[in-house]
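Support case: magnesium ion complex. Customer-provided input:
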Amino acid sequence: MVDSPILELEKVSMAFNGKQVLRDVSLNLHKNETYGITGPSGCGKSTLLRVVNDLLSPTSGTVRFQGKDVREWGPQELRRRVVMVPQEAKMFPGTVRGNLVWGLNVHGMAAEDEQLKAILQEVRLWPIDLDGNAENLSGGQKQRVAIARALLLKPTVLLLDEPTSALDTDSALAVEKTINSLLSDYQMGVLIVTHNKEQAERFTSRVLELENLSEAS
Amino acid sequence: MQLDLFALLQIPEQYTAMLQRYLAAMILLAVLIIITKWQGIGIGNKLIVGTIRGTIQIVLMALILVYIFALSDLIVIFGVLTFMGVFAAYTARSNLERIPGVMRATLPAILVGALSVMAVTIALEIIDWRSGPGEFIIPMGGMVIGNCMVLTSLVIDRMWSNAQKQRSLLETALALGATPMQATELTIRESIRSGLLPNLNRYASLGIVSIPGLMSGMIIGGVNPLEAALYQVIIFIMIFLAGMIAALITSRLFLREMFNERAQLTVPPPEL
Ligand SMILES: Nc1ncnc2c1ncn2[C@@H]1O[C@H](COP(=O)(O)OP(=O)(O)OP(=O)(O)O)[C@@H](O)[C@H]1O
Ligand SMILES: [Mg+2]
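Agent response - structure generated as follows:
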């Protein structure tokens, strides 16, 4: 028997002030699965991820996480399990360490430096000065801190919005490898937005291609 | 006999001098408005409306102040303070008209902050108000309320513009499961700090740069200078405390205007 999906989108539509961005998007994500989302710029990929972790409510349709409508989850409870790394992931004012544990802290959890070191090694960001100012990191370093910060929460669904756009191929591969190795550890499913066709082919098992509704009509 | 029409229309000399002074001040106001227009600060119209409104308000107030100062019933006095608090919240709202829900956040904050501090001060007889309740409590309350008004509108203005400018930082925080409170903690702290800064400056330069009106009034009115000076320190502490309470309450209440119950950001991007 096949597992029931951890995440189900059923005919999700989204419009901003009458402008249709998503129309009837449906998909199922299972654990241990990496699902790609592609499409031209402005077609609604980031919007779709925001809808999934309830940063935006869709104009129609349902998103279910573990069989339960996301509207029935407490927002914080949901987003601790369905964690999103936004396209423009920002650093919070403070140290690299403070940024890594930021997500844990808001849920009353903490991490030892050893744990931080382990995850940073995985995403090839070790050695790094944990007490350094996070704002001084490069764009690609920030991206990896943002991914590590999300992974430390041990999410059930990880939403990645162009997570490696500022990384060289080797670092991108390392990030992919890390996520792949954590899939079964965390019993996790991944929804990844990417422009990169090669990344989609090697890293994802299925791909949903969105189209630009405003240009099509 | 010739009727001296001119004499009938004549304004007493005392008033003409006063009007001349007021008109002279208008030249300064014009300079101020030109500077704000030139620098694109965009408050020129508010200054004009504020001047007209302020003049009417304070003239009316001056005329009835005698009666208000003569009040001795604490309940009536607190009624007056409440009215002042409502007016302060309304003023904060009308100066931040681009931001929704200001009054819902400022009104409870100003009333609770200012009135509770005034009540404690009176109950503990920190100020000797019995010799003239209206005369002591109302101007003091005015200062406390006025400061609450300044602080609450600063806090709201900051929270709002930060949320507009730092949408992706807020989104990053929310996407990790932060509550609106956690996501805005730093902003709130900063905005309270910057709101308290003018107070701190006045406090630090007390008596040397800032010679407070109340103390001057008391000394002119024959109160022992030492007593008047200590009063002024007390008032400053009250102003701080009330402002702090009001700022905290306003920040909590205003979060509800910035986020909905699903902890989604409802602040729109900055307007063009
Ligand atoms: N809060 C919003 N209010 C109004 N319109 C919005 C809002 N968020 C997104 N849009 C619009 O929705 C459309 C889709 O935006 P979205 O960010 O989801 O695109 P995207 O596919 O992620 O693009 P990119 O590949 O460039 O990141 C755009 O036209 C955008 O202008
Ligand atoms: Mg996008």
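Chain B touches chain A at residues 166, 168-169, 171-179, 182, 186, 262-265 (CB under 8 Å).

Case will auto-close in a few days if no follow-up is received.
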